[in-house]
Design brief:
Helices cover 28% and strands 7% of the residues. It has 23 helices and 14 strands. The protein has helices at residues 4-26, 77-81, 84-87, 93-103, 138-141, 145-150, 167-172, 216-219, 229-233, 255-265, 292-300, 327-342, 367-377, 391-397, 412-420, 440-452, 459-462, 476-492, 599-610, 620-628, 647-654, 691-699, 711-719, and strands at residues 155-157, 199-202, 225-226, 313-320, 348-355, 386-389, 426-431, 435-437, 536-538, 556-557, 595-598, 614-615, 632-634, 746-748. Strand 5, helix 13 (367-377) and strand 6 form a beta-alpha-beta unit. Helix 10 (255-265) runs parallel beside helix 12 and helix 19 crosses helix 20 (620-628). The longest helix is centred in the first third of the chain and has 23 residues, at 4-26. The relative contact order is 0.14.
Length: 761
């Protein structure tokens, strides 16, 4: 969706590119193609060690078909190119633009709106067109508890965990898994303890709407189990009076103590240097811990018996002084602690990471001040998992940066936490307004496994592209083949830089701390990086903002000495800040701050901040990873939409490339530009979307207002659907109990103000 002048400029290039593609296709040899991608079927995914849940609970994996998201080494890429999913993509840029122009001719309404409707009457794109697409009501009518019960399907304990202590498990891991105690005093695995975990309905997802973006199949996420509000949250306090469990005085539950006791029981599974109590009191002291660049190898190294130590992961739930904790917030936190920590023997540990806005508060040295603020800002139940911090510690640690506002320096406090708590190999940054309908451990582990098996070759380029399964017949092999084809052809024609291969320092004096490639890119058969843990995992694409109109692309601190943004009441974002030297600085960014870091990643970010260098929050981690040669992966988790997007149009909008192959989202037609970003408004995972809020409220059986110019008509359509009685029309719980929605594992964000009386819009 570029201007006509730019189309004329690129037309000859596109013709040349098409010729090159035809020539390579026609003259390919019968031997292995240089485009082969590695087979990264998750190892032992079907083995008892990795896949089975506890016998008594049953597992979804024994019903799940294996799915290969790469090719065998001997397979030829030409086989992939002959698939319909690959061949249907061969539409020229001009043909695509013509199709878009026809599609965006529609009867625009005359109402107040942003972006303004009629600003696009004569434009070659329209970020509002999606609002006129048909709404997707399949979330509300195709999976209800009533329908499942009619087919004899009831909820069962849902435990997607390894088969701990099995023979195969013992061969791989040090120590023994020891079951832990839950909030009711029950020991998991004994008696009726599994009555108090999340329960799921085993149900085919055939009638449920397909993902718009990403794929559960690719990540081996379970789509054949769904959860209603009772099966998901009853163990964690939802409708306590109706749950068969004994009443729990939740405000007396020591979640921190339960996690510590669980870890202590299982400490021999973890490296010796991690076996120490977790200290919650913050400190300004910068500890001189062991070099994390070597720790991953040392901690996980095998002894003479070939066994490994289990890594430890912290989950930091970001919150702040003044946050209003709703009951559903706390229920979600209880679920997160139980599913990731208590049921795994301490593989994860959950913290409430609280930003105290009083910068001068002496919480680091005055225990009375600390306890007073803890009491005033954190609910009693969560106090022994809370860690308080202020922006002042960031200024003390990184004085040369010149700015320490958490809005811009979102991950500085994670660097501080990592240095204070070197026992954790990985840290997830989590948000209070994120919800996962499903088991948290299952989601986080599958994301990590996928990322670990991704090869480094073309990784930075692949990271920038959305996978739309409807555009590819859910054929991820074909998608990867096309992606790699575009990367190599565009590079050969000089349309893009050579694919990233190793570190990309911004200046000769910057010493990269990541590994150097073991061979040339041409000699590597998508093998380097396979089996290597990711240093950075994101849940949205990682892309180069330099040629886009993304608002924060030039928010760069001190890469050029003394050049940085300056914020004022008159110009709070320092809009227009730029410098002639910025185009030479390699950078990448991503949207959303729910991400996983390795300790190595945070250490290198820490070292850069010590030198005074920084960038806008979401641009900082990916840029450091790029410049230092660390492994960063975008995990294409499934995302749904509240509208029925034509797959081709979604591909054209969100993977727009301005006619330059392999530049997905990285040119002047980027979907991340200010007005074009409105296209994300109906996604289940995007910070500007309303759909997560609406879907979650209806899943809870509460009122929710549809958003959009056709909201009144949407409400009437919904009222006409018999099975939608419980999804936002305010009927009583008893009257509509059987019509509860049952949703598969869906990650939602943002979900704010989660209480029944809130405005559902």
């Amino acid at each position: 969706m570029a201007t006509s002048s730019r189309r004329r400029i690129w037309l000859p290039i596109v013709i040349v590119l098409a010729f090159v593609f035809w020539y390579r296709h026609a003259h390919s040899s019968s031997g292995p193609s240089p485009f082969n991608v590695v087979d990264f079927q998750i190892k032992d995914y079907q083995s008892k060690e990795e896949a089975d849940s506890q016998d008594r609970a049953g597992s979804f994996q024994d019903r799940q078909r294996p799915y290969r998201i790469g090719l065998d080494y001997q397979a030829e890429i030409e086989d992939i190119k002959n698939r319909p999913a690959f061949q249907q993509q061969q539409l020229s840029y001009d043909e695509l633009q013509d199709r878009i122009q026809q599609f965006i001719q529609w009867d625009r309404p005359y109402t107040d709106h942003w972006p303004a409707w009629h600003d696009y009457d004569n434009a070659d794109y329209d970020p509002n067109r999606w609002e006129a697409m048909d709404r997707e009501y399949g979330y509300y009518v195709n999976n209800t508890v009533q329908e499942l019960q009619h087919h004899g399907i009831g909820p069962e304990p849902y435990l997607p965990y390894p088969k701990y202590n099995s023979e195969s498990w013992r061969k791989k891991w040090h120590g023994e898994y020891v079951p832990c105690q839950g909030p009711r005093g029950e020991t998991y695995g004994e008696g009726d303890s599994y009555d108090f975990v999340v329960r799921g309905y085993r149900s085919s997802s055939e009638n449920f709407p397909a993902e718009t973006v990403g794929s559960a199949k690719v990540l081996h996420l379970d789509r054949d189990t769904c959860f209603d509000k009772q099966s998901r949250y009853a163990p964690y306090g939802l409708d306590d009076h109706s749950h068969k469990s004994k009443h729990v005085k939740w405000d007396t539950i020591p979640w921190g103590g339960l996690q510590e006791a669980c870890f202590e029981k299982n400490e021999k599974r973890f490296a010796p240097e991690t076996r120490k109590p977790t200290l919650l009191r913050p400190s300004k002291h910068m500890k001189q811990s062991a070099d994390p660049l070597d720790e991953d190898h040392r901690r996980r190294k095998s002894g003479t018996d070939g066994k490994q130590y289990q890594s430890r992961t912290a989950i930091l739930i970001r919150t702040w002084e003044g946050y209003d904790y709703k009951e559903n917030d706390i229920q979600a936190i209880r679920a997160l602690v139980t599913e990731t920590s208590l049921l795994t023997g301490g593989e994860y540990q959950v913290f409430l990471f609280v930003n105290i806005k009083q910068r001068e508060a002496n919480i680091y040295e005055d225990e009375t001040v600390y306890k007073d603020l803890l009491k005033r800002t954190v609910p009693k139940e969560l106090r022994d998992i809370a860690i308080l911090w202020t922006e002042q510690v960031l200024e003390d640690w990184y004085p040369h940066v010149g700015d320490w506002q958490v809005y811009w320096m979102q991950f500085m406090p994670l660097q501080w936490f990592s240095k204070q708590h070197p026992e954790f190999d990985y840290i997830w940054n989590w948000e209070t307004d994120a919800r996962y309908i499903g088991n948290h451990y299952h989601f986080l582990e599958q994301i990590a496994k996928f990322s670990k098996q991704m090869p480094r070759k073309h990784l930075w380029e692949r990271n920038g592209r959305f996978f739309f399964p409807g555009s590819w017949e859910n054929d991820y092999d074909a998608f990867l083949a096309d992606t790699d084809e575009q990367i190599l052809n565009a590079s050969a024609l000089g349309l893009i830089d050579e694919p990233v291969w190793g570190p990309k320092p911004y200046a000769p004096f910057q010493y990269p701390l990541g590994p150097l490639p073991p061979t040339s890119a041409e000699e590597d058969n998508f093998q380097w990086g396979v089996g290597e843990e990711a240093d950075l995992i994101t849940l949205q694409p990682i892309w180069d903002p330099a040629e886009t109109d993304w608002s924060y692309r030039n928010h760069i601190w001190n890469f050029i000495p003394e050049v940085r943004p300056h914020f004022s009441p008159e110009n709070g974002n320092d809009d227009g800040f730029d410098h002639p030297g910025f185009p030479t600085i390699p950078r990448r960014t991503f949207i959303n701050t729910v991400v996983r870091f390795s300790k190595k990643m945070l250490h290198v970010m820490h070292l850069e901040n010590l030198q005074g260098r920084a960038m806008q929050a979401e641009m900082w981690p990916a840029t450091v990873a790029l410049q230092h040669g660390l492994k960063a992966v975008y995990a294409p988790h499934p995302i749904w939409s509240d509208r029925q997007w034509p797959a081709w149009y979604a591909e054209a909008v969100f993977n727009a490339d301005d006619g330059i192959p392999a530049q997905w989202g990285q040119q002047l037609d980027s979907p991340y530009n200010h007005d074009r970003e409105a296209n994300f408004g109906g996604w289940s995972w995007y910070y500007r979307s309303v759909f997560p809020h609406v879907l979650y409220r209806r899943w809870l059986g509460w009122k929710a207002k549809d958003w959009g110019w056709d909201a009144d008509q949407a409400k009437q359509n919904e009222a006409d659907m018999k099975s939608a009685l419980a999804v936002g029309l305010g009927r009583g719980a008893d009257e509509t109990d059987d019509f509860r929605m049952c949703l598969p594992g869906i990650l939602l964000h943002p979900v704010k103000n989660v209480y029944e009386g809130a405005d559902g819009g």
